[in-house]
User: Fold this.
Amino acid sequence: MADIVLSDKREITIDLYKMTLAEYDLLFIPSTTEDERRSIIAKTMGMNLDQLNALPMPDGLLTQREFWRKCREPLADPNSDSASTSV
Assistant:
């Protein structure tokens, strides 16, 4: 099931398993460039930097919002094979 449906009807799934912990950490380091951050985010969506940057602004903001939403609770996805089921 897609996480995002873009204005051109493309369905995007954000797969946090495509991002390493080291890449996640880079997102918070001030010296990391915006292109480096976007490349990491794009990778989780099966895109490259040019494809992400080419999105219309509303779609680009939607992808960013959904990426960060998933990062806040990476194990909350009930469809994830590794989602925690115990409390």
Remarks:
- DSSP finds four helices and two strands in the chain.
- The CA atoms of residues 57 and 63 lie 10 Å apart.
- The two ends are 26 Å apart (CA to CA).
